[in-house]
Amino acid sequence: MNVRQIEAFQAVMATGSVTRAGERLSISQPAVSQLIAQLERSCGFPLFHRQGGKITPTREAEALYNEVQRMFIGVGQIARVATALREQNWGSVSLAAFPAITRRVLPDIVWSFCKAHPDTRFRLESMRSRSLIDAVAAQHVDFGLSILPGDRPEVVSALLHRLRGVCILPAGHHLADQPTIYARDLADEDFVSLGPQDHSRYMIDRVFDELKVSRRSRIEAGQSETAFSFVAARAGVAVVDPISAFNNEDPRIVVRRFEPAVQFDIWLIRPKAARTFNLVDNFVAYTLERLDRFAASLNGG
Q: Where does the source fall among the domains of life (predicted)?
């Protein structure tokens, strides 16, 4: 049994005629008949009933044809997948990122990439930076976006952007009309702090401590999104990352520049020992290009 015999068999089954099968394969009718006879000998049973120049398939031939069709469909699928892999259009990508960028920025980036590469699948996880560094180190995800550089030998880190924090205030607050809020302006103001597990909490506290500015910090919020809710409820003011404040549409909150600058970093974290995969590399490059544009919009570029 060989490929030419199978091709002849497929052609006869598809056309219902040895003559038309020969035309399809660009070979003579006797050549088709010879290939079918050879295939029948290999199978050990007849494939066609022959009567008065007509042939009809046996039930064995119909069963064999179904299997052959499945096999060739499988081969075709393999070829399509190989082409898609070559063109970086097929496969799966997993990434983890800190909560603010996961909620506010990455869904649009992932979905726009999916629309251009319809055979790709994504898994996006929201994690705090230390957890996502561990996930990248263990290769549970292909890469991560963190506010901290990786501190494990299994990962490599690259600083992508350094963004300025912003001050959020309740609408109508006595400082809301100022274009820039200075740390000293917040002396004795009710202040919503981020939780102690949030690395940016220490950067913000250090600014006020160095300037010896005292705040009334009665509320801690685990994440910047929660801080927004407290500010909207007029529980106080807060300093948060600019990603959380991006495109703020809540009329109860105003967003203002904050001085002195509190820097929020975005780091790309990748596993050091990971095998290269074109699709992942392509998506990382796409993500970085989109983040460049996003950072420029935050910085007024």
A: Bacteria
Residue of 139, 166, 169 lying closest to 152 (CA atoms): 139
Compare 227 and 78 and report the one with higher pLDDT. 227
Highest mean pLDDT among 87-96, 198-207, 286-295: 286-295
Residue with tokens 């007029």: 234
HEC-encoded secondary structure of the chain: CCHHHHHHHHHHHHHCCHHHHHHHHCCCHHHHHHHHHHHHHHHCCCCEEEECCEEEECHHHHHHHHHHHHHHHHHHHHHHHHHHHHCCCEEEEEEEECHHHHHHCHHHHHHHHHHHCCEEEEEEEECCHHHHHHHHHCCCCCEEEECCCCCCCCEEEEEEEEEECEEEEECCCCCCCCCEEEHHHHCCCEEEEECCCCHHHHHHHHHHHHHCCCCEEEEEECCHHHHHHHHHCCCCEEEECCCCCCCCCCCCEEEEEEECCCEEEEEEEEECCCCCCHHHHHHHHHHHHHHHHHHHHHCCC
Please give the Cα distance from 238 to 267 (Å, whole number): 24
Model confidence over 175-227: pLDDT tens digits? 999 999 999 999 999 999 988 877 788 889 999 999 999 999 989 998 888 99
CA nearest to 108, candidates 89, 122, 128: 122
**Winning range, highest mean pLDDT, from 43-52, 54-63, 222-231, 251-260:** 251-260
Tokens 């801080």 correspond to 227
Q: What is the pTM of this model?
A: 0.67
